[in-house]
Amino acid sequence: MPEQRNPDLYTGAAAHYVIGRVAYPPELAERIAGELDLDGSGRLLDVGCGPGSLTLLLADRFDAAVGVDADAGMLTEAERLASAAGVPNVSWRRLYAEDLPADLGTFRLITFAQSFHWMDRPRVAAAARGMLTADGACVHVHATTHRGIDTDAELPFPAPPYEALDELSRRFLPPPPTRSGGPDTSGESEVYRAAGFSGPTSITVPRPVVTRTVDEIVAAHLSLSSSTPHLFGDRLDAFVAEARDLLHQSSPTGVFSEQLREIAADIWWR
Prior knowledge:
Layout: H1 14-20, H2 26-36, E1 43-47, H3 55-58, E2 64-69, H4 72-85, E3 90-94, E4 107-113, H5 121-130, E5 132-142, H6 162-172, H7 188-194, E6 198-205, E7 209-213, H8 214-222, H9 229-232, H10 236-250, E8 255-259, E9 263-269
């Protein structure tokens, strides 16, 4: 059973999330829009929206969009980014997914991007289906945006030393608490089908080799639920200093290369 209603899951991570996570590509929005015949009408709900990474990418495909997240810092970043990008048709609500429908109304599309596994999935899936219009769908995005994947290809710069960075992090962090359960990623299809959805229609978007900086890699590490800034307490600055030294030892230029994992999206039809 996933851990529920942990208010500190991403405390302090929002600003690092924006810097350290690789953005979703415009092609993802184009592929979703093509499959759903989006025409600029209807409403979008992005559940577990974080700083609006997917919300803002899709918002111009709808009359209005709503992003919901349990973390206040994530929503502050989302509002800032929406303002900076000149996206006027998005509103943000702080709430847990388990509180849906929360009088939000109905939607043409509901999205879960790297968020569904933290939720009471049967409860949230059932609520989401009840919030869709007759032609609506849910889109579940599978992606890894904080780091790349192993590759045999020759890279222009060194690959980030993730194993060493993880080991350094473990030396600074207290032992993890005993938990009744962690994020649940199993049986996703069964959850959607049990809620009454049909499908899925699946799409994939290949991703390139990217260049990453020391700042981005440190921020990506601090964007994870297992290593959010508040977990380090008063040792955060010391960890960041040692992490930066470690990374510069691996690449004196402070530049790294890595192959990104392809993005997959499953469309579940109402």
